[in-house]
Amino acid sequence: MPTSRRGLLRLGGAAVVGVAAGTAVLRNATADATELPEQRFHLGTYTASGGLGIARGRVDPQTGRPAIDFWTTAVRQPSWLDIAPGSGHLYAVSEVSPDGTVNALTSDTALLNTQPTGSGPAHVAVHPNGQFLFTSLYGGGAVVTHRIAGDGTVGAATDTRRQSTGGRTSNAHQVVVDPDGDHVLAVDLGVDTVFTYRLDPAAATLAETGRLTLPTGTGPRHLAFHPDGAYAYVAGELNSTVTVCAYADGVLTAGQVTSTVLSPGVTNYPGEIAVSADGRFVYVSNRGTDTVAVFAVSAGGAHLTLVATPPCGGVWPRHLAIDATGTWLYVANERSGTLAWFPLDAETGVPGPAAGSIAVPAVTQIRFG
Questions:
Q1: Category of 132 on φ-ψ map: left (φ > 0), alpha (ψ -120 to 50) or beta
Q2: Mind listing the pLDDT tens digit for each residue in 176-211?
Q3: Phi first, then psi: what are they for 61, rounded to 5°?
Q4: CA 115 to CA 32: how far, in whole Å?
Q5: What's the pTM value of the predicted model, to 2 decimals?
């Protein structure tokens, strides 16, 4: 992760797309898509590295090709985005230090308002009820809670939970609301821990209810839930692993640990992890080997088998996502400044050869919605 993470500009001929694993059902990419609706997406970038800000665009359902409608430069370093259910309001971090912010925008990317959130926000998550927003502070070592008003604007921080253990430096990398909406999980790369908090909706505060401590040097970066909510998968950035965890009532219990690479000892740093909506496959972006690790899920979600590591279509795949139809996998390759898309095999879950790639400088995330 970089030390500092990262007006309307019309670009009619450019292109891109966005994501949401968890809304897709895998299907054959060659199936008839004539009746599928056009999907909308947003895109985050690192503006300090040449990114153009936040994009909004659409995807051709037959070819999977993304097309950008416009960019906005309203937010610096908008490295991570989330969308409020129902309203479609967009929320973006400004990943700067020490004065990071969270920003509310309309679905057309018009800026509504900005609030301070803390140093180096790396991730933002909107509660499924659309009333709360959470940020993880990579630089500030904390999880921050904000209320969301009825008009979509984000309020001042109502709670900041500092994370530490054993005197080590916290780097809160991701915050995730659990499937029931009762708990918030904070994945902390710096202290090799996933913290669990219970949300108090009346006070808009978090109370710690548990910790899952992983072996030193795991570097947990991102977590994704199985669709039934009984398991979660934690990507270890520093040791190229996925830890399978049983989950119930806010408690994570570690189980199987498996590698994201075929050859041990290679230089590699997993980025994003995503689960297909039917729960049959898990995908991890491998930065270093520049591949996508594909896992088959078995035992009701308790076991993963690495079945393939195809090329990611670029360099340094920071993020990946499955489209809403389950037909396509999109990979945001940050260092090559490209967005590649791949057809997904309905039976094996393995991506086929890249269907295409477009230039998107310093791309960090794609988000459907």
A1: beta
A2: 999 999 999 999 999 999 999 999 999 999 999 999
A3: -70, -20
A4: 45
A5: 0.91
3 part of a folded domain: no
**Exposed, middle or buried, 310 (CB in 10 Å: 0-12/13-18/19+)?**
middle
Residue 320 within a domain? yes
Spatial CA neighbour of 221 closest among 266, 306, 287: 287
* 1: in domain: no
Which structure tokens are listed for 34? 């004539």
Per residue in 257-299, pLDDT tens? Answer: 999 999 988 999 999 999 999 999 999 999 999 999 999 999 9
Give me the number of domains the chain comprises: 1
Give the structural domain span for 53.
Answer: 8-368
Residue 235 lies in a domain: yes
Q: Which of 95, 91, 117, 88 is nearest to 103 (CA)?
A: 91
Rounded Cα distance between 363 and 130, Å, is 26
**Do 310 and 329 touch, CB atoms closer than 8 A?**
no
For residue 265, what is the domain's CATH number? 2.130.10.10
Question: Are the C-beta atoms of 102 and 80 separated by less than 8 Å?
Answer: no
